[in-house]
Batch of 4 targets.
Target 1
Amino acid sequence: MVIRINYQHHQQLGNKILYELAGRGHQVTAIISAPFVPKTSIKNYKPVKFELPDYLKDNNLDFYKVHESGVLSKMYLIDAMRVFFTEMVFNQTTVQELLKSNERFDMVILEQYINEAFKGFCYHYKAHGVVVSTIGTSRWTDIQMGNPISPAYVPDDLLSYSSNMNFYQRLINSLTFLLGTLHFFLSTLPKLNEIMQKYIPGAPHLNELYYNSSLMLLNSHTSINPAVPLVPNMVEIGGFHVSSPKQLPKDLQEYLDEAKDGAIYFSMGSNLKGKYMNEDVRNAILKVFSKLKHKVLWKWEADVLPNQPKNVRLGKWFPQQDILAHPNIKLFITHGGYLSTTEAIYHGVPIVGIPIFGDQEMNVATAEIDGYGKGVSYKTLTEESFGNAVHEVLRNPKYSENVKRRSVIMHDQPMKPLDKAMYWIEYVLRHNGAPHLRTAALNLRWFQVLCLDVILFTAITNYFCCL
């Protein structure tokens, strides 16, 4: 079994699945970037590492600048990343050696993120394909699985819309969906096919392999995401990465226990570096914190900040899940990443979101619609706007009540999400790929599923009839 995960927060998800499979006796081979190779050996687990370029090793990309880009720029950036990362991994000596070896696999597990060409591994090993989506459904997941998708109520990940869109938002969302789909299939997929053919000669065109996944596991749940239709081989396992809270280190435990007025946890995730944060934004945030009675834990790379208030404690790393589980945490200030949003709901902590890139704007917009959070635009963040959001969530009990209600929903499941993932992975193995779960939509091309050929035929026919 093979799985590849790109980023630290994605690796957290991948490890849960990999280690659980290994613990159940499956022989797991993981193509994984060098920084995430386990320091100690794990039974039944074999890492095949690849090296990141030097400029990516320390994760020093300024993602705050991405926030300033428009939707089309972000779309092209993601597609460019697809081509870059795909070529980089295929070109690794260790990966080439694996492809040329006599190893055989029953299943290939892939993350759904900028790596569609790795469907070639499934063909090469004649293995069943399982895809793991770290954020739930999207135009990338639904089309390849033949799942119904409607821009009328399913917002694109690159937009800041919730599922409740007005006419203008539905118009922009529909255009984004159409342009993104056309660009992917007419430009990006052919480039990825060239790379795949280069390293796996004789493989069918990626247009064919793209639809050959037996199962897709979605890191989503109706307590986090709006309800959407799903075909039988798309299974929600949202929250599977969340672990039962562990005892905090003594100093953190005492710090939070002594927060009689409550505490706030602030983290912008693993990819957003504090050194790139706009100085005016940072100072505005500090001014708001200085006027609060709450203690603040802020994940930050430095040991001290200019004008740092006494109630703010910095840390280069914090055990986020265990902190959110502490009863004195009253607010989670976050970038709105999907894992952070999931953990906030799991532990029943309302949020203030400062979204920067990817699906974060959509996640924060959903939190506002569902009443468990407030969003603040990074571009226009001031002491007043940030302070208003923080005070609103802290003082209005509806936010805490709504997130606790969603927490109850998340916990009310017939089986644990990780056990559910294991069941369906092993189900696919037991039933030789489970072809009976596939929808007939997978027998059609993407433009046929969208009825674009029918629409074009009707338009041409009507045109000539009117001549």
Target 2
Amino acid sequence: MKQRVVPTQREIPFSSEELIVSKTDLKGRITYANKTFMRMADFSEEQLIDVQHNIIRHPDMPRGAFFGLWQTLQQQREFFGFVKNMTANGDHYWVFADVRPDYQDGKVVGYFSVRRPITITMRTTMEGIYRDMLTIEQQAGTANAPQASWQWLMQTLANRKTSYERFILDLYQQEAL
């Protein structure tokens, strides 16, 4: 079970020359974490392997973002997104995540994720969206929260005449480090 960690509101940076890499099984349990992941999350390899990847989930992240991630991965498609992660001591760091199915002999055996640092503009944009999604989740109730906030985001982007993937990739490419 995930330990209850209190967020510190202290952001820790990482270099644009670094990549955070991890692999999970089909249920989201970590099977590999590179040294940058371990250093940023402040967990040892022993503390991470065979543990749910949500061990680093920050409470400021709406559940709907992960609903969209899993929905995309279950369609065997690549997912891009901005994520606020929490370290073992409650600090946080923001990433641009590229998550994709990991194939072995033509069969999906898990997921592979590469994360990069983001700019202040990217973070500010996503903080506003995630605040709105969290408000929707609170109003929708626990059972309906993830789907409700994800649907709100999809409708908001459709109203802007764009898709989720196009919005995320455009934001990243316009502001890339």
Target 3
Amino acid sequence: MRVAGPLRIVVLIFTAGLTWIMGSILLGTHGSGFSRLQQLFSSPENAVTTEPRARKYKCGLPQPCPEQHLAFRVVSGAANVIGPKICLEDKMLMSSVKDNVGRGLNIALVNGVNGELLEARSFDMWAGDVNDLLKFIRPLHEGTLVFVASYDDPATKMNDETRKIFSELGSTNAKELAFRDSWVFVGAKGVQDKSPFEQGALRLPAPSFSFLLAAPQHVKNSKSTNKYEGWPEALELEGCIPQRTMGTQ
């Protein structure tokens, strides 16, 4: 009986409060009780705020590419632990997840007109046969895009012909590439002149076929500057490539 008294008072107070809220809703006096509750729980002061996330575009680029351009990102391997990545138009062409990367040079060939992947392979430049690489890059067609990402060692098996072909594709670093250097590069079959890469430009026969937002990168393997023991830091290269027009030579 001692408990029944206080409990009865609580029930009466709750009923009276509920009756007042319902009356306010029906009569519309002093504003809607329901609206007040809505305002209470939806007001900015009571909302959980979070920092807005920076918008990412295709392949994680910080800004969108112009129309009729291909968005890309190339990431070299980190030491001999984390494999490289090659992304084009938000499609991962090569990565450890796809299980199509390996020690040495990882190369994706892409149709410069429609951006379709032609072939993707890795070439072991430490214990492999350089002739396999030469057979892959010798017969390229005009306008073929060449995406390259190093992993572990990209250069031990390189010979003069290999370096010459990469130079003709637009590389300024292929001649100097050495044991365990980090290297990311995007070139094309048919490059005429080499503009300074720090300006991110490559020229092909008209119409222009320039690279935007990107510059090929190369970091030497050096004990004094290596980020990882025995290996330099990983590199990233990103940008926008104008699609080649059908019928251009």
Target 4
Amino acid sequence: MHGELVQLGYQVGASTVWTILRSAHVDPAPRRSGPTWRQFLHTQAHAHPRL
């Protein structure tokens, strides 16, 4: 969320975003059981050879 706000031009600290979400009782997303980004990209690179 912090990164998205920065891209929109807002100057806000990551800890500020965390504090706001915490005060609104918004918990962090649970960890996914699937592959990491690195594993996903590695799999995709090998599944789709360059033409």
